């Protein structure tokens, strides 16, 4: 029973203590042109619907851009995490088995980096944007 309580405390602290993440909600696509960094990660969101996207970090913000669309801001991050955890910063999975891969973004790590916690963003087919679902936030040991 201690693990769920500790996980709840860690999630609360990560969310409350990271000023980059406060009041961040999916926004309409940005109209300004953004140069995608060379370390951007191409993702397959849905083979059925032919949806591909590129996810990347720029100025402490996670951005996602579907092919042929404007970039969308997903979330702010703790910039100190990205250099050390770049290889595991993004995860792609279809946990809810709806045929659309979700994008999981590293939100924080435990002391000693024994656990990694991820925010999860689902693709909304009707609106054409990614949306955070707080109930899907999870932590995993590596």
TrEMBL record:
Keywords: Signal. It comes from the Bacteria. Residues 1-22 form the signal peptide. This is Lipoprotein. It comes from Thiothrix unzii.
């Amino acid at each position: 029973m201690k693990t769920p309580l500790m996980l709840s405390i860690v999630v609360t602290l990560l969310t409350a203590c990271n000023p980059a993440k406060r009041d961040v909600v999916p926004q309409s696509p940005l109209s300004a042109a953004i140069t995608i960094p060379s370390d951007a990660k191409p993702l397959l969101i849905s083979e059925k619907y032919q949806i591909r996207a590129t996810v990347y970090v720029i100025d402490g913000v996670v951005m996602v851009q579907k092919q042929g669309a404007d970039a969308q801001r997903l979330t702010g991050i703790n910039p100190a995490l990205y250099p050390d955890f770049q290889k595991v910063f993004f995860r792609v999975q279809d946990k809810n088995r709806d045929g659309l891969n979700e994008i999981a973004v590293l939100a924080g790590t435990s002391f000693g980096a024994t656990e990694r916690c991820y925010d999860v963003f689902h693709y909304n087919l009707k609106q054409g944007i990614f949306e955070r679902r707080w109930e899907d936030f999870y932590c995993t040991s590596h």
